[in-house]
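Student: Hello, beginner here. Can you help me understand the protein record under this note? Any guidance would be welcome.
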Amino acid sequence: RIYSNAGYALAADALEQATGMDYRTYITESVLIPLGMQQTTFGVGVDDDANVLSVKEPGLLGHDQQLFNGTRFRDLGLPQSGAFGTASDYLQLLQMTLRHGRLSSDRHLLAPETAALLSTNQAGSLPGGVGDFMEWERCDWGAGFELRADKSPHWTGTALSTTAFTHFGASGTLAFADPVTGTAAVILANR
């Protein structure tokens, strides 16, 4: 099992085929608005948006082309990397997942069974990891979130329970939620 953004691109394509809607429109109407994620936007044209920070040390895709945060990359509008939002917006998504798909009201955004797919192992007992960063004999991964499980070493150290789910980004970002403690946090960085 190797971390790959291709899965998100395939999911967006399947979503568009099933709904007949552009994935940005569908996600905005079906996820962002119900969760109150008003500060989240898609990458195309965000260079003029004062709410979107630039990454100071993004790495390079090619000669003089920023890896993830440059104008060219943003304008591609890729499903796996094309959304920009605030920590408090992202926290809404984590909290909804901790509440088994429920919004802050008693209404469900996701069926509990669907929400469970996000934070339960979908990879079986496959070995794998995240490129050259970390590899494990068993690489548990949910439908979107990395699962803490028994991985050692792990970027969260031993602070989280084995049921925690996380995501990290190339610019030093980290998000996690721990069902045992009911806590969640989002850290956004630009280096």
Q: What stands out?
A: The chain has five helices and ten strands. The helical segments are 6-19, 23-35, 71-76, 87-98, 112-119. The mean pLDDT is 85.
